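Page 37, continued from 36.
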């Protein structure tokens, strides 16, 4: 998964955790450490019991579906290498997933967030860092991991930025002047020296910024500005796509900017726009009001 599919470290950690929990369940079920033969002989009832145990522990349907995918990936690998074969797992169906659409911020909420992001309670340069990070996420549609993996050589930004996305695939995204200005202001205030390979976004001690810190800062701003619970760093990426689409952006172009492998993933944003248009219609149309 790492060398061939080039999945991110975060994804690898999630998949490893899923497999570990499955093996622990099977060991508890057998009352001993499991061997390869136990995996090969695992029954459909055991797989279903494991999934049911995840549900009892509070795992959502999406988490259970990912766990099943992780375990199936392990068994496919073992089968491909001639280690073992288990036909029962192939008949195991993933839980039904709820239909969900991205939850972007409104344009006014996004503007309010960026306008207040630099008001850090402790250090001025940390405020500039937060403003630069959130402006980058919203202005370029980056994933949080993509932004935090950038190094100091990135600044000063030109007209476009090369981003290393999922599967180690590179894409080019245009850079707005506001994004370039926010990044430059942050780097000018940065108290830590560093060469071109030093991390761009750093924490208070100068180490590469952890995503949890950015998420915590977003929660603080969310409470301060009374934004919805769905206001997260990733929601800025959703907002980037939705606001472009609302302004007439081409769906194929937005797909390229987001780095989506499939157009169907990008098409989720059309559902957001339709939902918003329906809400406007229901609140404004005389006949809708009458009903």
């Amino acid at each position: 998964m790492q060398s061939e599919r080039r999945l991110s470290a975060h994804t690898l950690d999630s998949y490893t955790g899923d497999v570990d929990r499955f093996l622990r369940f099977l060991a508890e079920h057998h009352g001993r450490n499991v061997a390869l033969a136990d995996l090969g002989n695992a029954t459909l009832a055991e797989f279903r019991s494991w999934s049911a145990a995840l549900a009892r522990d509070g795992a959502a349907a999406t988490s259970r579906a990912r766990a099943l995918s992780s375990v199936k990936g392990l068994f496919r690998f073992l089968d491909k290498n001639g280690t073992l074969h288990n036909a029962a797992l192939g008949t195991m169906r993933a839980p039904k997933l709820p239909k969900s659409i991205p939850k972007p911020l409104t344009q006014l909420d996004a503007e309010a967030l960026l306008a207040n992001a630099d008001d850090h309670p402790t250090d001025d340069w940390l405020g500039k860092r937060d403003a630069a990070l959130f402006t980058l996420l919203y202005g370029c549609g980056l994933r949080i991991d993509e932004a935090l993996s950038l190094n100091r050589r990135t600044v000063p930004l030109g007209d476009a930025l090369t981003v290393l996305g999922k599967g180690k695939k590179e894409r080019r995204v245009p850079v707005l002047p506001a994004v370039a200005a926010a990044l430059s202001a942050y780097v000018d205030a940065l108290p830590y020296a560093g060469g071109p390979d030093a991390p761009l976004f750093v924490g208070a001690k100068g180490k590469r910024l952890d995503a949890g810190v950015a998420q915590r800062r977003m929660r603080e701003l969310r409470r301060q500005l009374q934004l919805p619970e769905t206001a997260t760093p990733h929601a800025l990426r959703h907002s980037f796509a939705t606001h472009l689409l609302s302004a007439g952006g081409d769906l194929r172009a937005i797909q390229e900017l987001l780095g989506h492998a499939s157009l169907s993933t990008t098409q989720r944003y059309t559902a957001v726009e339709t939902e918003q248009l329906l809400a406007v219609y229901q609140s404004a149309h005389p006949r809708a009001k009458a009903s």
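The radius of gyration is 23 Å. Flag for discussion at group meeting. DSSP finds 15 helices and two strands in the chain.
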